[in-house]
């Protein structure tokens, strides 16, 4: 591990300081789940191509609920088949060593942190979790597991698929438990206040695999940098968090992949091989 990184991690290890890990699609890229910045993101409705930022919106769901559901079901299928990788598992080791000094904020909806063994209590899925759905009309049905859909997803949903995706209480559409690009963060669904509270207390912010295109993660980064937390960004590409890390009093940008870097960082912080 590079000397600069060791120098930044040493006081965190010695004092068992408060750690906030912020992950994005990059940590799951090595599990085979495409990021939004890749070419795989677009989707065709009629003769028009839509980007994820257009598909994952309330406006699109209002207009084409079936198309949005098909897009999600195909993406969710990729998530279900994917397996957590070394980087996800390293964070489980870090949590086991730091317990309440550790918080994980993830933008990923793929469930790979949960499936690797990160606790629900210390993991805030600020963009939701594909394993759950709720009533699109908020009729009070609560949070429900994503229905199991066995039939393949064709060019249109079948009657059976439409029924499975209907709210058991009011009969309207269910929707994925995912924050859409034209919606606001909240605590009840997405633990946004808890994530900000963790940012205010963090002594180390470890950012992994995010392009910084969404607002709450950027606010978390800025708050951490402003109150003097150590900021480390792990990403093969430069991005707004690598700039923040370089501007921080204590910080560095590690231009490498999550699975190449996190096991070493965690082993240094915990003394446990990760
Ligand atoms: P993003 O697609 O905007 O950016 C991904 C970042 O990961 C890029 O900066 C890229 O350089 C970096 N990266 C790629 N491979 C990496 C690796 N092996 N190790 C470390 N970094 C790597 O993703 P985002 O910033 O998370 O934001 C986009 C939105 O997309 C979020 O709202 C998120 O909810 C959603 N999303 C989630 C998933 C998922 O759940 N796995 C997948 C795609 C998009």
Provide a brief overview of the structure:
The chain has 274 residues and is of the alpha/beta class. The chain has helices at residues 3-15, 25-29, 52-55, 58-63, 65-81, 86-98, 112-116, 159-164, 187-190, 192-201, 215-226, 240-247, 258-270; strands at 19-23, 43-45, 48-50, 102-106, 123-125, 128-135, 144-145, 174-178, 204-208, 230-234, 251-254. Strand 9 (204-208), helix 11 and strand 10 (230-234) form a beta-alpha-beta unit.
Index terms:
274 residues; 6-stranded parallel beta sheet; SIR2/SIRT2 'Small Domain'; alpha/beta; 13 helices; 42% helix; 11 strands; 2 domains; elongated; binds nicotinamide-adenine-dinucleotide
Work out the radius of gyration.
Answer: 19 Å
What is the rounded distance between the termini?
A: 14 Å
Structural class: alpha/beta
| H/E element sequence | HEHEEHHHHEHEEEHEHHEHEHEH
Counting H and I runs of at least 4 residues, what is the number of helices? Answer: 13
